[in-house]
Amino acid sequence: MVPGCSWRLAALCLSLILLWVSEAAVYQGLGKCKYKDKIFKPGQKFQRGCDKCYCAEGGYHCVTPMRPTSWPKKCKPIYMDCGYRIVYRSDPERECYAYSWVG
Q: Where does the record locate the signal sequence feature (predicted)?
């Protein structure tokens, strides 16, 4: 096995699971886990704006919330704390479903 390959494979699997379950986009960076001049150690979690990140050996992995791109005309998106809800225009308390999302 290639050195360092096992954590990358595990990170990839976790990323794909998170993407499938949470409808979120996943990205990664190599090198130090750094955000706003603060360095994080492997195993630590941190937030980059609305993105939730995890520091691993050799880099970091982040999950960014998806945003809706299309929805029924009778519905509308509402931005809420780093995410969106799709609701009926006539009854904003009732959830509606988006046709598509992008990260």
A: 1-24
Amino acid at 59: G
* 59-100 per-position pLDDT tens digit: 999 998 888 999 999 999 999 988 899 999 999 999 999 999
Q: How far is CA 42 from CA 27, 32, 33, 35, in A?
A: 17, 9, 8, 14
DSSP state of 1: -
Amino acid identity of residue 50, one-letter, is: C
In this prediction the pTM is: 0.59
At the topology level of CATH, where does 5-65 sit?
Complement Module; domain 1 (2.10.70)
